[in-house]
Amino acid sequence: MRHVHFVAGLDQEARFVHYFCCDSIDLAADPAEMIGRQLGSRARTDDDARRLRSTFSECVLTGDPQECVITDDVSGVIQCRFEKVVQRRDRAFHSDDEVVAIAVACQLPGDIDLSQREQQIVRLICQDKSNSEIAAALKLAGSTVETHRQNIRKKIGAGGTAGIVLYAVQHGLVD
Predict the structure, then answer these.
(1) Taking the model in full, what pTM does it have?
(2) Residue spans of the chain under pLDDT 50
(3) Is residue 54 in a domain?
(4) Which strands form 66-72's sheet, in the order they lie side by side?
(5) Is 97 exposed, middle or buried (0-12, 13-18, 19+ CB in 10 A)?
(6) CA 20 to 30 Å from 27, out of 1, 39, 137, 162?
């Protein structure tokens, strides 16, 4: 899966204070334009903007990495990961802002090729079926279902079941 990586320094009010690209791939948004904007200002829906800021806040409060998938007006569907940072010696942040987290966003490819079996499993996951229930319904071994789940998560960039469900809803795999 091809990702576009970038990192953003954010202050306590989820405003961009520094923004830089991790690799040579061009971003759809001009990083200089993002400075001072609130996180989620380019999200396609208010729900996505709230989810993004909520994920950021959870990272700041707990200190644990947090992830969410949103739709951005500029880049499309992206998976965002926040990690709390105490100090970054390799990056120059604005001295007058307290940077409390960085965001690493990965643009997900538009067309992900899930097999018919993987699509069946995604639909059953969305019906809140366990691996053993899915295995029984499809006449598969439980380990085979788990392997399919891992492959699905890897293909779509999901960290867990919630990411699979979100992907299915966003891509019309479920009603």
Answers:
(1) 0.51
(2) 1-4, 24, 93-95
(3) yes
(4) 16-21, 5-10, 101-107, 76-84, 66-72
(5) middle
(6) 162
The CA radius of gyration of the chain, in Å to the nearest whole number, is 18
How many other CB atoms are there within 10 angstroms of residue 134's CB atom?
Answer: 22
Alpha-carbon gap, residue 90 to 40, rounded angstroms: 26
- The CATH number of the domain where 40 resides is what? 3.30.450.20
Residue 70 contacts by C-beta under 8 Å, 6 or more apart in sequence?
A: 40, 43, 44, 48, 49, 51, 52, 77, 78, 80
Q: Are residues 142 and 59 in the same domain?
A: no
CA 12 to chain CA centroid, nearest Å: 21
Helix axes 142-156, 161-170, angle to 10 degrees: 60
Q: So what's the pLDDT on residue 98?
A: 56
pLDDT tens-digit series, residues 56-77: 888 877 878 888 888 776 667 7
